[in-house]
Specification:
It contains 6 helices and 8 strands, in the order βααβββαβαβαβαβ. With 195 residues, it is an alpha+beta fold. α2 crosses α3 (79-98). The longest helix is centred in the first third of the chain and has 20 residues, at 14-33.
Amino acid sequence: MTLSLQHGLPGHQRRAAAELYWQAFGGKLGRVLGPDRAALMYLERVMQHDHVLVAIEDGRLVGLAGFKTAGGSFVGGTVDDLRAVYGRAGAMWRGVLMRFPGHDVDEARFLMDGVCVARQARGRGIGSRLVEAVCAEARQRGYAEVSLDVIDTNWRAKALYQRLGFSVAAEDRIGPLRHVYGFRSVTTMVRRITS
């Protein structure tokens, strides 16, 4: 099996990327972006192909790591995108809730925005390689730090990030929104990168 990492999402992999992203984050976003069919349609519509690093193995997408810049994020979208998939009423309440999950970009930190690896490819270091590739991308763009958010129920991801040199910078409780998203807090983790 040949694994390669590359910048950008090939057009023919959009559906696979939407499915992989939903597999990883559907538990967190399901009540907002569900049902599954609509969520996949929305994700395919809004993914920015140039804001992601992908892992391809023998022609199949097995992992991805999105990132956010001033020019957008891997999975962003507008109210118009929400309206196109969920209708006017569905777009209104989803638009309000979708403002919550992500942090805005800042000048000092490169924001990693979603790392996922296909179930059948886990445990082989693909996630670690994607994180290192994001750090290399950040370094190349002149950033001093990489930042990411991890939810309290995703302890495996938090442990991986700690092994890869990330440390906790802040923890924010989400209050009543925990009933919508299914988790209680978001931890911001930061890794300093050297040139």
